[in-house]
Design a protein that fits this description.
Blueprint: H1 2-13, H2 32-35, E1 50-67, H3 73-76, E2 83-84, E3 87-107, E4 112-133, H4 140-146, E5 153-175, E6 179-210, E7 213-227, E8 232-233, E9 239-240, H5 244-249, E10 252-266, E11 282-299, E12 305-315, H6 316-322, H7 329-337, E13 340-345, E14 349-353, E15 357-367, E16 370-379, H8 381-384, E17 395-404, E18 408-411, E19 414-417, E20 422-424, E21 426-430, E22 433-437, E23 449-460
Antiparallel strand pairs: 1-2, 1-3, 1-23, 3-4, 4-5, 5-6, 6-7, 6-10, 7-12, 8-9, 10-11, 11-14, 11-15, 12-13, 15-16, 16-17, 17-18, 17-19, 18-21, 19-20, 21-22, 22-23
Helix pairs in contact: 4-6
Length: 479
């Protein structure tokens, strides 16, 4: 039982986090092909005629459950152990991975821009009710013993991974002497390559005396778990597999869209109007975007099930006996069916909503090449679609001071997420290369919670800025 608990918690921990992850550069004009996903309207106010994110990769993890080495310290000791944290508390584990390939942005003229590219994204989120676990847990017998006071043991988990092709169109609606307004729309075609969900509720642990000894049995309980048909492989007795060709062949299509607005208040006076490193000087830049409004579709695997009502007298010894020979989802279902009164297969299609959210971003030019950026993110599914399956972003608030020119950038994001974590990250942009860490203070920890992550991107663009150094203060306004 201990091994099963650890494997589950570690797997859940490996797959949750922010939707896009390149938090440090939000608000920056230079890596604009990466910022399309944060606010599609940002592609209009870019300093280059074009730029391409040749590739980008980021991952992020948040957990109060599993401890061990974080990135990049685990590269120094890849065999370092990971362990579940002891105690009786509500456990949560989550992660996210995002990969970008050839995300391009092109300015058609001063008022119009487009962007397009391909991404692969994945989320997992899991949480439990209060669960008692410690090093003394050696199997189902001791697990039930340490949770004898628990009422309504519960679990919720959702995972979704997909590939997407996107296209963005942005336009300047108004460009006056003191301000500018840009809007943009992104359409996405999705292919859901992996989906899964699980829930457990109303499972109790009862104590009773039998032959002078106290015994602990399970009672009640309702459980459902399903995963996508993309993982069914008949060659392995419907075992859980992840062959890339099979994932794509069996995937289903989905749709999503982003909508963004960006309002720019231009600087007054003559400060830096001839500065090539700041081709489009502004005092304030305010962005509002609604992101990832959509869903992925999946077909249920043949082994997806719904169970309810644990039979009377199911003890830790019973569990140990019945699940000792479990080798794959089919044998797990067969064993579970012997301890419950009702077992039903799930069939047909299920849908997992993409991580829809509202973002409000405010960027302020301070002086010279110094800026500060603030961002608020509000998840929409948890407010508007609680009865649906969904994945969501963890970020609540981020504040990022930065210093940057067209060749160099230094960023220090301070982030607060809905798990109550405060992260101090850091990133640098040197020419075309961007690299950073979500949580520098935890990057080399040996025993802290798994929490943090990193990102790396290569962005190319022409050597010259789109607008040469000139006094833009007296340009004729365009309406």
């Amino acid at each position: 039982m201990r091994r099963i608990v650890l494997l589950f918690l570690a797997a859940a921990n490996a797959c949750y986090g922010y939707a896009q992850g390149y938090q440090a550069i939000h608000g920056s004009q230079y890596p604009s092909s990466l910022n399309t996903a944060a606010n599609p309207a940002s592609i209009v106010n870019a300093p280059y005629t074009w730029d391409v994110a040749v590739f980008g990769a980021q991952y992020q993890t948040i957990s109060n459950t599993v401890s061990g080495r974080n990135f990049p310290s685990f590269l120094l000791e890849p065999d370092a152990p990971y362990y579940a944290n002891s105690g009786n508390f509500k456990r949560a584990a989550a992660a996210n991975i995002n990969m970008r390939l050839l995300n391009a942005r092109i300015s058609l003229n001063e008022r119009h821009a487009i962007a397009f590219g391909a991404n692969m994204r994945g989320y997992t989120q899991a949480n439990t009710g209060s669960l008692n676990y410690n090093d003394s847990v050696r199997g189902p017998i001791t697990f039930i013993y340490y949770n004898q006071s628990a009422r309504n043991l519960s679990l919720q988990a959702t995972s979704s991974a997909w590939m997407e092709l996107f296209a963005t169109y942005g336009i300047t609606l108004a460009d006056r002497s003191n301000d500018r307004l840009n809007v943009a729309l992104t359409l996405k075609v999705l292919r859901g390559i992996s989906g899964a969900h699980a829930s457990l509720s109303n499972l109790d642990v009862n104590a009773s005396a039998q032959d002078g000894e106290e015994t602990y049995t399970l009672a009640g309980g309702e459980a459902i778990y399903g995963y996508s048909h993309t993982h069914d492989d008949p060659r392995y007795n419907s075992g859980f597999t992840a062959n890339p060709r099979q994932l794509l062949k069996k995937s289903r299509s989905g749709l999503a869209f982003d909508l963004g607005l960006e309002y720019i208040i231009k600087e007054d006076g003559f400060t830096n109007v001839f500065d090539d490193d700041r081709p489009d000087g502004y005092l304030w830049k305010i962005g509002v975007s609604i992101l990832d409004i959509g869903w992925n579709n999946f077909l249920y695997s043949n082994e997806s099930r719904r169970f309810s009502e644990v039979r009377e007298g199911i003890t830790g010894n019973e569990l140990l006996t019945k699940f000792a020979a479990v080798r794959n989802p089919r044998s797990f279902n067969d064993s579970l069916a012997t301890i419950v009164r009702h077992s039903d297969a799930l069939s047909g299609q299920f849908r997992i909503l993409t991580p829809a959210r509202l973002k409000i971003n405010v960027d302020r030019h301070l002086s010279g090449n110094f800026y500060i950026n603030g961002e608020l993110s509000v998840n929409l599914p948890s407010l508007l679609a609680k009865d649906k399956l969904f994945v969501q972003e963890s970020q609540v608030l981020a504040i990022t001071p930065r210093w940057e020119t067209k060749r160099l950038g230094i960023y220090m994001p301070l982030q607060y997420n809905r798990q109550g974590n405060v992260w101090v990250g850091g990133a640098v942009r040197i020419g075309p290369l961007l690299m950073g860490s979500h949580h520098l203070l935890n990057a080399f920890s040996r025993k802290n919670n798994i929490s943090g992550g990193a990102y790396l991107a290569l962005i190319i663009h022409p050597s010259q800025l789109r607008v040469s150094g000139r006094n833009k203060q007296y340009e004729c306004p365009v309406f």
